[in-house]
Amino acid sequence: MTAQSKNANSITQGTIWKSMLMYFSTLLLGAFFQQLYNTVDAVIVGRAVGSEGLAAVGGSAAMVVNLFVGFFIGLSSGATVVIAQFYGADRKSEVEKAVHTSLAIAMIGGAIITVIGLLTASWIIDIMNTPKEVIEASTAYLRVYFLGMIANLVYNVGAGILRAVGDSKRPLYVLVISCFVNIFLDVFFVIILGLGKIGVKEGVIGACIATVLCQIISAVIVMVMLIRSNDSYQVKLSQIGVDSDMLKRIISIGFPAGVQSTMYTLSNMIIQSAINEFGKNATAAWAAYGKIDVLFWMTISSLGTAVTTFAGQNYGAGKYSRVRGTARQAFVIAFIITVPLSLILLMWGKGLLYVFVEDTAVIEIGVQMINFLAPFYLTYVAVEILSGALRGMGSALMPMLITLSGICILRVVWILAVFPFNKTIETVETSYPITWITTSILFIIYYIYYVKKHNIR
Fold it and tell me: CA of 125: how far to CAs of 176, 201, 211, in Å?
């Protein structure tokens, strides 16, 4: 029995919370390196180029990247769920078809995003009310980033395949390698070659080239891992292609998740546009806060991913009591982590902001953002855990509709209807707790209804 098989067995057998903590811890460590990978860009650009560079890398450009990448990663999450269910049921032929179809989706999707991104980068940056000082740098960053989109999606899908079968360790190893390579390349391009001293645009491009090269390295390593595997998820390059039946199954779960991610990002882009109205200091502060805020998001997102894998494999194996147990015990883990994390950000958030930027005006705005939003993190927990459990069971449409109405539409309505009458940063920030609380309530109601209707006991 392979190490991966033993790991997978721990998902469908034994004590849930112990296995989930081990799996989640590896995912969280991977998320940490993923964020360190991204944060290095912000730190080096913020320090070597200035607040304009930070605003270009972490502001509007980051939102646009999340919009495109989020949709296809959401779409590929359908493959993750399908693979987890088939792997839990030990249906090897279906696992093979799902693996090769999902990689084909990544390659085709990456090519589509590259073309669309290169053609629309300038227009999108312009319509987002991006401060004039960073428009050129933001556009340049986007165009370089889109050139690495195929590698980006291949890595994410490949890592998703490994996690779906219970292997969370090897994606972590890849992230560790690419993270340190990214740090070296950032320093090389921005500081050693002096691109950061030439100008904002050149410094941003240097950081982005480093990121794209690391994405290519990550994609190659993951593909080698999959090709060398001896299990049912082994990749054979000649078999990468679209199986129509498997594509339909993946899309039935993944498309709603992709739309959900896209709408979520669109609502955040509207938030970004509102923040941009307060000038480059507010834009830079929001970007810096986002790098700190990600401590919560990478934690709860990793837990949500763990819930999806555990729910998916146990649902596929017909172990419904473990599906519900996964959701219950994930809530306990989430509360134990979220409360102290919120307190840490409230107490030491100002010091963390100085890692990214030294401008006192930017720091002051960033502190206000942390103090306003960190106390409400707990209200979002149910959204991630219950949507993860529902996706694992194959329910994707209703979670999409709940997120669409509770977070996306409500947030847009708030910005369009309330913000014009009270144009303050606090008004923009208020859209977050309102939508988190509303969406959590909707998910709790639907989850209770779903498990009763489908007799998940």
Answer: 32, 14, 20
C-alpha distances (whole Å) from 312 to each of 164, 185, 329, 330 are 8, 38, 16, 14
Q: How far apart are CA 342 and CA 293, in angstroms?
A: 10
Cα 112 to Cα 119: distance, rounded to the nearest angstrom? 11
Does 433 reside within a domain?
yes
372 phi/psi in degrees, rounded to 5: -80, -45
Supply 205's token pair.
């491009």
Task: Extract the runs of DSSP E, i.e. beta strands, from 186-264.
Answer: none
**Position of tokens 């609502």?**
267
- Residue 167 has what pLDDT? 86
264-289 confidence digits (pLDDT tens): 777 887 888 888 888 888 888 888 88
Confidence of residue 154 (pLDDT cuts 50, 70, 90): very high
CB 153 within 8 A of CB 145: no
Q: Is residue 404 part of a domain?
A: yes
For residue 159, give the 3-state DSSP assignment.
helix
Q: Give the gyration radius of the chain's Cα atoms.
A: 21
d(CA 125, CA 130): 6
283 exposure class (CB count in 10 Å sphere: 0-12, 13-18, 19+): buried
Quick check: 96 and 230 in contact, CB under 8 A? no
pLDDT (0 to 100) of residue 253: 85
Whole-angstrom Cα distance, residue 100 to residue 11? Answer: 24
Structural domain count, the chain: 1
| 2 in a structural domain | no
Q: What is the pTM of this model?
A: 0.76
Length of the chain: 457
What is the domain extent for residue 294? 13-453
CB 205 within 8 A of CB 138: no
C-beta of residue 118 within 8 angstroms of C-beta of residue 102:
no
Q: Which of 328, 429, 329, 322 is closest to 373 using CA atoms?
A: 429
Q: What H or E segment, with its residue span, contains residue 60? A: helix 60-88
**CA atoms of 428 and 335, how far apart (whole Å):** 26
Mean pLDDT (the chain, rounded): 85
The span from the CA of 164 to the CA of 133, in Å, is 44
Residue 334 lies in a domain: yes
Q: How many helices (DSSP H) and strands (DSSP E) are in the chain?
A: 18, 0
- Cβ distance 41 to 215 under 8 Å? no
Residue 237 has pLDDT above 80, yes or no: yes
> d(Cα 368, Cα 182) in Å, to the nearest integer?
31
